Amino acid sequence: MSGDAYDFSSILQWIGWFWEPPAAGSVDPVWDDAFKTEVNTEVVNFVNGFRAAHKAHRVQHNLPGCKGNSKVRMRFVLVPATIR
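and the corresponding structure tokens:
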């Protein structure tokens, strides 16, 4: 699962460019609001799918969850993006 977590993180970093403000001197792409909503929806679906896979892996292998004084914590936080 650690390799999957790395891939997950890499994909989220890659999609981050979509929400970054344009660099100085570059042209800001004009994205349709419906398209931005669709991208947001698919990123949320991707995150939820990863969470479900991670939970299934923990259950299958009898691994502890992220509760109480567990030494390893894994949190996935979705921060709503501001549509420009």
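(Above: one complete record from the training split.) Residues 36 and 44 are 12 Å apart (CA to CA).
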